[in-house]
UniProtKB/TrEMBL annotation:
Keywords: Aminopeptidase, Hydrolase, Metal-binding, Protease. The lineage of its organism: Bacteria, Pseudomonadati, Pseudomonadota, Gammaproteobacteria, Vibrionales. Belongs to the peptidase M42 family. Transmembrane segments: none annotated. The active site is at residue 203. GO terms for molecular function: aminopeptidase activity; metal ion binding. Zn(2+) 2 binds at residues 171, 204, 312. This is M42 family peptidase. The keyword Methyltransferase does not apply. One of its GO terms (biological process) is proteolysis.
Length: 349
C-alpha cells in the first residue's frame, strides 16, 4: 500500500486562496533535499527546479496549492460571523458544515455554519458562522478579525481502506502530491529536459498564479494537474471522465484548448505503457492551463485532470489507482520531452 502521509499533510493544511502559507511550507520542506533551486513569484507561487545543469526544453508541471474557502467579512453584535466565499462553493454544501478558522497570528478555532432559511435558493448571505461567541467583544478576545480565513475542517482519510481517498482540499492537493512525487522519483536520473514543479496560488479565484509564475519561468512546455467532478455513468455510456478509469487529458475547456500535438504525444505515451487515460472536455470551467499557455508568444500546454466525487465540498474523493496512473504517465512523459519532441510540438511550417 502506498504511503499517503505526504498527501494527508497537504490535504489537512489550511490553505484557501491567498492564504497558502502552510501548503507552501510543506512543498518547500519536501523539495529542500530534492530541488537544486526554489524560487517564488510575487504572489507566492513556488517554482522548483530539479537540476540546474539539465539541458533540453524547460518543462513545467503545474498544480495549484489553494483550496476553496472563506474570509470573515462581518462580525455581528451577537457574535455570529458572515463570510465571503473563495472559489465555487455551493451554499447548500456549506450549510451545516464544520469549519476551521485561522487568525492572523495562527490561532485556529472551530466554527459551525448554519442557516435558518430553506436550502432551496440558499445564498452565501443566508449563512451564519458560529464560533460560540455571544458578542463582538468575545470574538475579538479570540483574536478573530475581519479578513481572517476559514476552510472546511475535514481531515484526510481512506474510505473504509478502499483506496478511495477523501479530504477537504483534494482540489488540488492531489495535483501537488503528484508534482512532488514526480520530482522525488526523477531526482538523480538523467533527463532530456529541464524539469520544474510549479505550485501556484489563487487558482480558485481566477487562475492568478498560473499567469504570474509561468510569466516568470517562461517554460517551453506546460503540463497542468487538476481535478474535475466525475460523471456518474458506466464505461459503456460513451461518457468521458469516469471515476476510477484513469486520468483525463483535457481536449478543451472554457478558457483553453489542449495543445493538439502535446495531447497526442501524451496519449501515445499512455498507450505505449498500458496506462489507462480518458479524453475530456470541461465546458463549465478551466485550469491554470488557460493563463499559462498565453504567456509570451504562447506555450504548448495540456491539462491532465483526475476525476473526483464531491468536488468543492468537505469530502472530495479521489481513487488512488487514478493517482498512480497519473504519476506513472508523468514519469514516462517527462523522460521523452527532449529537443526533438519540442520541435514536433511547434510544427507550424
Amino acid at each position: 500500500m502506498k504511503d499517503f502521509s505526504l498527501l494527508a499533510q497537504l490535504n489537512d493544511a489550511h490553505g484557501p486562496s491567498g492564504r497558502e502559507d502552510e501548503v507552501r511550507k510543506i512543498v518547500c520542506d519536501t523539495l529542500s533535499s530534492v530541488a537544486d533551486e526554489i524560487t517564488f513569484d510575487g504572489l507566492g507561487s513556488v517554482i522548483a527546479r530539479l537540476n540546474r545543469n539539465a539541458h533540453g526544453p524547460k518543462v513545467a508541471v503545474v498544480a495549484h496549492m489553494d483550496e476553496v474557502g472563506f474570509l470573515i467579512r462581518e462580525i455581528r453584535p451577537d457574535g455570529l460571523l458572515k463570510v465571503f466565499k473563495l472559489g465555487g462553493i455551493d451554499p447548500v454544501v456549506a450549510a451545516n458544515s464544520e469549519l476551521e478558522i485561522k487568525t492572523r497570528f495562527g490561532q485556529k478555532y472551530t466554527g459551525l455554519m448554519w442557516s435558518n432559511q430553506p436550502l432551496s435558493g440558499l445564498t452565501i448571505d443566508d449563512l451564519w458562522l458560529d464560533v460560540g461567541a455571544n458578542s463582538q467583544e468575545e470574538v475579538a478576545e479570540m483574536g478573530i478579525e475581519i479578513g481572517d480565513s476559514a476552510v472546511f475542517a475535514t481531515r484526510h482519510f481512506d474510505l473504509n481502506n478502499s483506496g478511495n481517498l477523501v479530504a477537504k482540499a483534494m482540489d488540488d492537493r492531489i495535483g501537488c502530491w503528484l508534482g512532488l512525487e514526480l520530482m522525488k522519483s526523477m531526482a538523480g536520473q538523467p533527463l532530456p529536459c529541464d524539469l520544474y514543479f510549479v505550485a501556484t496560488v489563487q487558482e480558485e479565484v481566477g487562475t492568478k498564479g498560473g499567469k504570474t509564475a509561468i510569466e516568470q519561468l517562461r517554460p517551453d512546455i506546460v503540463l497542468v494537474l487538476d481535478v474535475a467532478t466525475a460523471k456518474h455513468a458506466t464505461s459503456g455510456s460513451g461518457t468521458q471522465r469516469l471515476y476510477g478509469h484513469g486520468p483525463c487529458l483535457v481536449v478543451a475547456d472554457k478558457i483553453a484548448l489542449g495543445h493538439y500535438p502535446l495531447l497526442n504525444l501524451v496519449s501515445d505515451v499512455a498507450k505505449e505503457h498500458g496506462i489507462q487515460v480518458q479524453r475530456d472536455f470541461l465546458a463549465g470551467g478551466g485550469t491554470d492551463n488557460g493563463p499559462a499557455t498565453l504567456v509570451g508568444g504562447g506555450i504548448a500546454g495540456l491539462a491532465i485532470i483526475l476525476p473526483v466525487r464531491n468536488c468543492h465540498s468537505p469530502y472530495t474523493q479521489v481513487n488512488q489507482n487514478d493517482a498512480f496512473g497519473c504519476l506513472t504517465l508523468l514519469q514516462q512523459v517527462v523522460t521523452q520531452l527532449d529537443e526533438m519532441q519540442k520541435a514536433h510540438l511547434y510544427p507550424y511550417y
